Structure formats: C-alpha cells, structure tokens
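In full, the data.
>
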Amino acid sequence: MAKTIAKPTTEKPAAEKAAPQRATATKAVDLAKVSTGILEKLKSLGIEPTLQAEIEWCLGSYAYDQNPVGLIEAAKKSLVVFQSELAKKTKGVTVKFIADIEKAANA
C-alpha cells in the first residue's frame, strides 16, 4: 500500500473561524440608533412633542425588555412627519435620513 503525502490546508481551525453574528441583533441595534437620531432631529426642529415623548418612552422600554415593537411603530409615525418636512424643504431633513428610518421601520 502506498503512502500519500498530506497536502497543507489553508483552512483555519474551527476555533479561529469568526462566528456569524445574528441578524436580529444588528437590526435591533440599528433601530435603537435610528430612533435616537429621530428623537434628536425632532428636538432640534422643535416639532411633534407628543411623538418625542413616545419615542423617549419606547427607548426606555426597549432598553428594559428588548422588545422593538414600540420603536417600530414610533419610527413609522416619524416617517410620515419627516416626509412632510422634506416636502417643505426643512433644513436638516435629508433623503438619506428618511431612507434610514424606512429601513429601521421595516426591520
């Protein structure tokens, strides 16, 4: 029986391979960041104080129980507000900002 020569492999051992990250965790983090940005933008523009209060409450609730339902609903409400502000050409409301809100609201 002939001996075979082992070929060197370029594959990393299992311990060195990077573990795949959960997609839900990254979406949730993005949702919290976007919601914080929404809150800051609403405060800087001085509009929708009830929506500001709702987002503040939802951020606190999310920090406690990690349930994003309230943040998603608040993001959808703010999306309508910011789209109307974009139509008015309000300074500081950009198409990219609205696109980020849409991504977070549809997460």
Summary: DSSP finds four helices and no strands in the chain.
